[in-house]
Write a sequence for this structure.
């Protein structure tokens, strides 16, 4: 397998490679119980994931996508969230079908692979290793690896730099408007997946380079980008 120009693929984590919502839900509810607030459903948490832990906690406290919790309450909840998640980040999470086979084939074909996520770096590498895909990535950029997070393009630029690649030969692969917007801001091509956390947005309407319903489809559509 060889393609003419694309040599670097940047993958989001949550909602793209793994479904982490069950463990995020348990962590959020652990925090909510300890600060005396009602728990949230997995459906609610699923609709709020994608912008990093800070915003997820604001949303779980307020029950709103745009809600902002009082600073002290947010900090307390964040501490409890991390307490639970540090020990239970992979209890119920699962790798999406086709991920390991696709990554193995891309890695064997010589593509440079990076994971670029808004999840803190200290949680990202252990999760990748737990799901037996950590060794396939040449670089990992977490939500605290750079000064800003997606949709800012800085994490994508940082990943490209770590890999010794170029924006023009790189593609961002993700499930949310944050991934799409980060790629757009970086002037990088993007491929959107339909099985993740899209927050109700029709990803096809964003007009990325492609939208895929199955990870193995990636192997078929990459040549069309060249």
């Amino acid at each position: 397998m060889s393609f003419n120009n694309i040599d670097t693929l940047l993958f989001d984590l949550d909602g793209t490679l793994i479904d982490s919502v069950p463990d995020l839900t348990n962590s959020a509810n652990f925090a909510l119980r300890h600060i005396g607030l009602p728990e949230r459903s997995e459906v609610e948490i699923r609709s709020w994931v994608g912008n990093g832990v800070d915003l997820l906690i604001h949303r779980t406290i307020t029950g709103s996508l745009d809600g902002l919790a009082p600073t002290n309450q947010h900090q307390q909840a964040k501490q409890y969230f991390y307490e639970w998640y540090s020990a239970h980040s992979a209890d119920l999470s699962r790798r999406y079908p086709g991920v390991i086979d696709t990554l193995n084939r891309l890695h064997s074909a010589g593509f440079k692979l990076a994971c670029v996520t808004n999840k803190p770096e200290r949680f990202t590498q252990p999760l990748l290793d737990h799901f037996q895909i950590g060794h396939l990535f040449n670089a990992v950029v977490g939500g605290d690896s750079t000064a800003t997070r997606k949709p800012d393009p800085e994490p994508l630029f940082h990943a490209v730099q770590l890999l010794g690649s170029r924006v023009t030969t790189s593609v961002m692969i993700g499930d949310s408007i944050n991934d799409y917007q980060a790629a757009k801001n970086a002037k990088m091509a993007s491929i959107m997946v339909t099985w993740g956390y899209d927050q109700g947005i029709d990803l096809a309407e964003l007009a990325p380079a492609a939208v895929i319903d199955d990870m193995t489809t990636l192997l078929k559509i990459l040549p069309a980008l060249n």
